Amino acid sequence: MNSDQIKGKAKEIGGKIQEEAGELVGSSKQQAKGVANQVEGKVQKKVGDTREALDDALDDKTTIDRGNR
């Protein structure tokens, strides 16, 4: 797990809390900010997922290359 995955998930959770709080107090502005933060968090987590998959693929390639020598 990398920092983008962690920060993204945290932002997503925080956004959900903000959205729910906005709904509770009747603030459509806070709800919208919460939804926006959830989207940002999901994107950041997806960047982290992609980065991790790329790192894993490079590690696998390095292992394969070493085995062929």
TrEMBL record:
Gene3D superfamilies: YjbJ. Residues 1-19, 42-69 have a biased composition (Basic and acidic residues). Residues 1-69 are annotated as: Disordered. SUPFAM superfamilies: Hypothetical protein YjbJ (SSF69047). It comes from the Bacteria. Belongs to the UPF0337 (CsbD) family. This is CsbD family protein. It comes from Pseudoduganella buxea.
